[in-house]
Amino acid sequence: MTPQIWQEKCAEIRARHGAAAASAATLADLEKAETDCLGRKGELTELLKTLKDFPLEDKKRLGPAGNALKEELAGLFAGRRDSLSRAELDARLSSVAEDLSLPPYPFPKGHRHPLTVITDSMTGILMRMGFAWADGPYIENEHHNFDALNVAQHHPARDMHDTFYVKPADGHEADERLLLRTHTSSVQIRYMRGRKPPVRIISPGRAFRSDRIDASHSPVFHQLEGLCVDEGVSLADLKTTLMQFYTALFRQKVDIRFRPSYFPFVEPGVEVDFSCVFCKGKGCSVCKRSGWVEVGGAGVVHPNVLKAVGIDPEKYGGYAFGLGIERTAMLLYGINDIRAFYENDLRVLSQF
Amino acid sequence: MKILYSWLKDFIDINMPPEELAKKLVSIGIEVASVEKTGANFTGVCVAEIQKIDVHPNADKLHLVDVNDGTSVMTVVCGAQNIAVGQRVPLAKVGAKLPDGELKKAKIRGVESNGMLCSTDELKLPDDGVDGIFLLPKDAPLGTDVAKMFGEPDCALDLEIVPNRPDLLSHFGIARELSVALGLPLRQPKCAQLKGQGEALKITIENPADCQRYCGRVLKNLRPAQSPDWLKRRLLAMGTNPKNALVDVTNYILYEMGQPLHAFDLAKLEGGEINVRRAREGEKFMTLDNKEIALDPGVLVIADRNRPVALAGVIGGLYSGIADDTSSVFLESACFNPPLVHVTARRFASRTEASKRFEGGVNPEAVELACRRAAELIMEICGRPQEDMSEVRDVYPVKYAPKAVEFTPEQINRILGTALPDEKIKAVAAPLSSGLDTASLPWKFLVPPHRRDIETRWDIAEDVVRFAGYDCVPASDTPCRLPGQEMPAVVEDVELAREELTALGFSEVMSYDLISSAEFALLGGDEKSQPSLLNPLSDEWKLLRPSLLPSLLRAFGYNERRGVRTAMLYEAGKVYSYVNGHPAEKLGVAGLMAGSYPADLFWRQGEMKETGFAHIKGAAERLLARFPGCKIDISTGGKAPSFMHPKLYAEVVLNGKERIG
């Protein structure tokens, strides 16, 4: 084959296959045309293979021209493929007939219980402040729930708590009386016993009282207990801790006010109020126009409690607080009936 | 506990509005539940009769009313609709001081009004339920001062006293606390300390530990009498109905001094002696409310020679009770062992005003004074004080020993986190003590007999901050030299389960740990083998739940009754069982799917599936996949318990051994 003929063949392939690329009606036709031209046994491929028989001079001349043609044709095929696939996509998309006004698909969505949500934010703040998490059982003995907390057997303070007693199994009646803990303070004893200060814990959880059931009383409720024992801990530390805690919880500056009160396991014992964040002290229904909202009890850990767990009250001091979790949730979420937390109405739950 | 403002003034010259007094009480730790005004809080209002009613010339809804106050007739403008000629009504004349201000002469729509006819609301009297003018009795004499008909203006405060301060359960006790708080002098209850001559009863205390002090006095030849009005009014304000002077005075002294007294009919006491002793096994006793109870040595009784006549500190007996015609009495004033009274009161379910005070502990040093004051008051009303009274017989085996608490000002400041100067601490503590020795360190605080609650310097710290004001406690920097926080693994696991179940579309519910017998019966099994409450609120909340299933079903039921058909619920909570005979608790997580998936009312009915076994198994598997440390198998084909579908049931097995679900 002479270079002349080779070149003519090239021109002929260019014209015929170029036209085939341009005229292919479907992607399948185009595929076939491309294979015929550029495939392993395609016409152009075969033609280029013959270059090896030419003398070096000719090869230098014909080689680049052949490669240029290959690229040109490949470009033509690629261009045609783009426009064909685009047309095909357009056709497929425009053939869809879905009613876009139909209601959306109802993906199931889960919700955390509001008491879980509030407990998480309260414990989250306190744990960032350095409190460790301690846990304790709901079924307690009188020692942990009362005696070690300085509530003596016949002290009238025991009557402040309407206690549920748990029936022992048949044949075990002689054992110590068991009860459902009336407060989370029992965890104080369990945690401190056998540990040396410093101690700084929180313990959120359930407590039980045989109260009547109404809008503000529930036989099952949640408290968040806090306890800090170390050298030099005072009532002032308690005030700071609660101030920082409520400031973080309400995301605004909150003041703390103490009012004298009585809980056998603290001395001095105080009732804790925070400055009303709902009306900024101007007076609203939440704070009953007083500018202060009551949230729980607290105080300096009673020396008898420290003694009961083997900690020297002459050396160490401490504070403890118990905050109502339902009460906090009711304030934050504007819920006015404690029973709403245990009815589990999905219309309520799904707001959290 | 109710406190009358006017009664407090018997002991202390307070001169502040009741609202301010209430604030002061709250600031020193005495909760005030309510402040209620009583009596007449106005002047210049008299009884008048309506003689003529005309229409107001310039207003449709007003009347011109001619009223006669007994001396003259005047015209007033009135807008009320309930008036009629002949009625007697309260007329406030010009210049009258009403609770809301002074009444001035005024022209109302062009007509001069010479006064005002008043409603109960305008006079701040108890609501009579009538919309309009307060209608007085037809026989009320014209011109009478209406204020006189309703007593002096007064105020009743309802206080909540904490259990460690029984000394505050009386008017004198509150006055004593206020005298410290306000720096005002305190007057002792009135008592002439009259000597008696009559015969006394022999008093024997079997065991001094049961009764620290017992005072008795015999009063004879009493005229049966009703109490004077002032005493009746005070008792009524306390919520106690007056009976006769004898009973009324004992109640009166209880509210005044906090010392419970008991009066026995002397004629019914046999053998001329009083024994404070434990009941004998099987001894019978008839209570005042006519119930026969059997006693045992756990109960302290007051007995004559032959039988018990009262449960010490709790309730009197029927047989020696005071009748309206009782003419001679034995008056008891004592200090009983608090726990003993506590147990007895609870055992016989008669918690009385008296037992409440004995349980907290009465002041042994005030026992005799209360006895004397009561006796003198009774004699003043219905007897001859000099002749018919015995001397007080006082048996006081365990003398009150003053206790001293040592402290340093620095210790007080350390407890409180304050920097109170020594002088301030001294100034606050001294009036609380019956002597404060600050000559050298440590200081010595002599505890007064009514403050049994003060035992340590922590108690003194509380009183210091109570009276110095809690504002003196600064916000300090909390010392923080603590190890890192720890979170129990189980708490983190529950959190993980919550996260996964919420992501799957389950909503968390929270239920009581208690279920009913009916709910338990659904699960099958013997109720006796399930921990339960000894004192449940009701049968609905009786057993500790053995499983979370009843709770989930209850939660679903609540929603189903409100039209919900589809729900995905879970609960993370405790379940209970007996383990080796002991009630034990375990933390569990359970889920429930009901209705269809994905949701009710989904428009593409074809894509909505009834939730089936595959759904809940899929959820369980996804949940368990969050706990990669444990090898968990869900195995089917096991025998289903009665409350489950016999075939669509699977068990979850942990590490090939323990069945966990």
Q: Whole-Å distance between the termini of chain B?
A: 54 Å
Q: Largest interface: which pair?
A: A-B, 90 and 94 residues
Low-confidence stretches of chain A: none
pLDDT averaged residue by residue of chain A: 89
The major pleated sheet of chain A works out as: 7 strands, mixed
Quaternary structure annotation: heterodimer
Strand segment tally of chain B: 35
Helical segment count of chain B: 17
What does this molecule look like?
Chain A has twelve helices and ten strands. Chain A is α+β, with helices and mostly antiparallel strands. Chain A starts with a helix and ends with a helix. Chain B is α+β, with helices and mostly antiparallel strands and 661 residues long. Helices cover 25% and strands 27% of the residues of chain B. In chain B, the strands form eleven sheets. In chain B, strands 3, 4, 5, 6, 7 and 10 form a six-stranded antiparallel sheet that branches. A five-stranded mixed sheet of chain B has the order 12-15-18-19-20. In chain B, strands 14-21-13-22 form a four-stranded antiparallel sheet. In chain B, helix 6 packs across helix 7. The longest helix of chain B is centred in the middle third of the chain and has 16 residues, at 367-382. The radius of gyration of chain B is 36 Å and the shape is extended. Chains A and B meet through helix 5, strand 1, strand 3, strand 5 and strand 6 of A and helix 8, helix 9, helix 11, helix 13 and helix 14 of B.
